[in-house]
Write a structure and sequence with these properties.
seven-stranded mixed beta sheet, alpha/beta, Rossmann fold, 40% helix, single chain
């Protein structure tokens, strides 16, 4: 039997894109093409793998999960790794114990549930009200600015309470002091929300220093990394860890 050769990073990206988007064919053209566009164009998904940010056997809570793309991506990564095709020198992707997604958009939850099965599960809900339970990793990608500052603080406090010592919060926010790049990010955000069937809500954005200070006040150690890819946006990934 021939042993599969490790993939190059470029070949890995394509293999992951194909595997992670394939389950959405059953949900129709929109779900499939949205998955390919988002997974192929958003640098945060590959960064999570390249940096080995998700610990093995983690319970993951994905707030604002959309149609479950994070779950599809992580499960696809493990499949590629188990097939022996993982790039040399990259950390092994996590074998996910559980990934629970919560989102307010019923059509997205329907697509996610149709595309993916255990260890992924999805539920309709509002992060301002949902029970977070106990989890090892919380992911909040590009959604905190849709709720007002008081709600943001409450969500972050409840995330802190849901995590154990050594737990991890991964989030991406816009830096409100980043000038025209921040304005461009907001315009794109509103456009995507419109085409996904969401209303266009007021945005509650904050400077990066403010986000970091709020997390540090809750006991997180915070690392910030620009996360725009080749686009002139003002998006920043925050890796916030609780000391063990």
């Amino acid at each position: 039997m021939n042993t599969p050769a490790p993939l190059s990073p470029d070949a890995l990206r394509q293999r992951l894109l194909d595997r992670a988007s394939a389950p959405y064919r059953a949900s129709g053209k929109f779900g499939y093409h949205f998955a390919r566009g988002k997974l192929g164009g958003d640098p945060m998904f590959l960064a999570l793998l390249q940096r080995g940010l998700i610990p093995d056997r983690s319970r993951i809570l994905d707030l604002g999960c959309g149609q479950g793309l994070l779950a599809a991506w992580l499960l696809a990564a493990r499949q590629v790794f188990d097939a022996g095709e993982w790039p040399v020198g990259w950390p092994a992707p996590a074998q996910v114990a559980e990934i629970r997604g919560v989102d307010m958009l019923a059509s997205d939850i329907k697509r996610a549930s149709k595309a993916l099965a255990a260890p992924a599960r999805f539920e309709l809900g509002d992060m301002r009200e949902a029970d977070f339970g106990q989890t090892d990793v919380v992911v909040i990608m590009d959604v905190l600015h849709y709720v007002d500052r008081a709600a943001q603080q409450d969500v972050l406090r409840r995330v802190r309470a849901a995590l154990p010592a050594g737990g991890l919060l991964l989030t991406r926010v816009g830096d409100a002091r980043a000038g025209w790049g921040f304005q461009l990010s907001n315009w794109v955000d509103r456009t995507v929300a419109f085409f996904r069937g969401n209303r266009l809500p007021p945005l509650h954005c904050r400077p990066l220093t403010d986000w970091v200070a709020s997390l540090e006040a809750l006991g997180f150690r915070v690392e910030s990394t620009p996360m725009n890819g080749d686009l002139p946006f003002a998006n920043v990934m925050l890796v916030a860890r609780l000391d063990g």
